[in-house]
Specification:
The chain has twelve helices and 13 strands. It has helices at 5-13, 17-33, 37-41, 73-78, 122-131, 153-164, 189-210, 226-238, 274-288, 303-312, 321-326, 329-337, and strands spanning 49-51, 54-56, 60-62, 83-89, 102-105, 110-113, 138-142, 170-174, 216-220, 243-246, 267-270, 294-297, 316-319. Helix content is 40%, strand content 16%. The protein has one domain (2-337): TIM Barrel (Alpha-Beta Barrel), CATH 3.20.20. The strands form three sheets. An eight-stranded parallel β-barrel has the order 3-4-7-8-9-10-12-13, surrounded by five helices. It is globular and about 50 Å long. Helix 6 (153-164) runs parallel beside helix 7 and helix 8 packs across helix 9.
């Protein structure tokens, strides 16, 4: 199927980006429910890797944002991903930002989104995860509702943590989306310390009551200064966070300046994010010295890109925009390369 993916992509790129997103997910789910996934996508690569005390079937995961509500977990796993991160989820359902809010920049192999944590709420996600294959490694990405003040953000994260704890293999604290006002301020100073204190305390209580330890990861932005990255790394070690995901989308437009849609508000992903995100991984790795594992995301469009992330200090990688542009073969190529 890889040789016809350019034709499939041409069709999807001829229609509205958000409609194409949903149609593509439904098509993958239809293949799965028709038991055709193994014929179309071939067998997922088996190359187990131990990270955060979990055994990942391979090192290539799906980044959060593609399956916000956990509606397609098993179908996406069958495409070849070693783990699936769903969300971002919020305590209450919310529609997200007004449409249009998803834009392609094909000349730069990029996407800009300002979705705004559109999701059906944590209770819907819980029901979907309960139905999913228990062998799938599932990360659940949590955030705050758009109308919750930043100073009360910890309350929303705590609610989500409590609700999904028993079902998640790991939980990601998303403090780096550029599409929820004020969210990125949680990456710095007292706001970050307070948030991590609240969630680590709750994690400890939940682990004691459930007899199950669920790791916490923090997802950060690519737009931080090196000194800020180092300070953040020190705090993650101090608070005993279990992993860091680098990175989310960027607000920079330097790599796409002058192209159609380049000035749209939102987070930019794609090839342009590769070098900035790899740089963040390198700075983190130098500061963390192996004490906290790094999961790399951003601009992975080839097996070499994935290897570069590992060489920079990551232990796992996640793909999203590369999957949209390159298709499922990219997952297999990257997983094979990281064996």
């Amino acid at each position: 199927m890889s040789f016809i993916y350019p034709l499939i992509r041409r069709f999807f790129f001829s229609i509205d980006a958000e409609k194409a997103h949903l149609l593509g997910l439904k098509a993958i789910k239809l293949l799965y429910s028709s038991k055709l996934s193994s014929l179309v996508f071939a067998k997922p690569v088996s190359a187990p890797r131990e990270v955060m005390g979990l055994t990942f079937p391979n090192a290539v995961g799906l980044a959060a944002g593609l399956d916000k509500n956990g509606d397609y977990i098993d179908a996406l796993s069958a495409v070849g991903f070693g783990f699936i991160e769903i969300g971002t989820i919020t305590p209450r359902p919310q529609p997200g930002n007004p449409r249009p809010r998803l834009f392609r920049i094909p000349e730069a192999q990029a996407i800009i989104n300002r979705m705004g944590f559109n999701n059906k709420g944590v209770e819907h996600l819980i029901e979907q995860v309960k139905k999913a294959n228990k062998d799938t490694i599932i990360g659940i990405n949590i955030g705050k509702n758009f109308d919750t003040p930043v100073e009360s953000a910890a309350d929303d994260y705590k609610i989500c943590l409590q609700r999904v704890y028993s079902l998640a293999d790991y939980i990601t604290i998303n403090i780096s989306s550029p599409n929820t006002q004020g969210l990125r301020t949680l990456q710095f100073g007292d706001e970050l310390k307070h948030l991590l204190d609240v969630l680590k305390s709750e994690q400890k209580l939940l682990a004691q009551s459930s007899k199950k330890y669920v790791p916490l990861a923090v997802k950060i932005a690519p737009d931080m200064e090196d000194d800020d990255i180092r300070l953040l790394a020190d705090l993650l070690m101090e608070k005993e966070i279990d992993a860091v995901i680098a990175t989310n989308t960027t607000i920079s437009r330097s790599a796409v300046a002058g192209l159609a849609h380049a000035e749209e508000q939102g987070g930019l992903s794609g090839v342009a994010l590769n070098k900035p995100s790899t740089h963040v991984v390198s700075v983190l790795s130098e500061q963390l010295k192996g004490k906290i594992p790094i999961i790399a995301a951003g601009g992975i469009f080839s097996a070499q890109d994935a290897q570069d992330k590992i060489s920079a200090g990551a232990e796992l990688v996640q793909i999203y925009t590369g999957f949209i542009y390159e298709g499922h073969q990219l997952i297999k190529d990257c997983a094979e390369a990281l064996k």
